[in-house]
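Input (structure):
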């Protein structure tokens, strides 16, 4: 399991962009995002460097995180938070 702190993530669009970027590397990846804590958790068989590079290429700055992300809830704009 990979965990990232993405402090420049701010809305449902960011959540969707990061999710799409991760799934571009691994279409079967499970992505959990807590927007309020700016935390991303990914269950994937892809390498950490591939996932973090994909997040960077989407325009965000992932940093290693160690704390687990709580279960995501749907937001008003259809994104996950």
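Output (sequence):
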């Amino acid at each position: 399991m990979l965990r990232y702190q993405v402090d420049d993530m701010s809305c449902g669009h960011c959540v969707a962009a990061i999710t799409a970027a991760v799934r571009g590397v691994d279409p079967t990846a499970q992505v959990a995002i807590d927007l309020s804590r700016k935390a991303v958790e990914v269950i994937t068989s892809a390498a950490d460097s591939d996932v973090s590079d994909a997040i960077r290429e989407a325009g965000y700055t992932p940093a290693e995180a160690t704390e687990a992300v709580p279960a995501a809830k749907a937001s008003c704009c259809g994104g996950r938070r």
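Notes: Helices lie at 12-25, 48-57. The longest strand covers residues 30-34.
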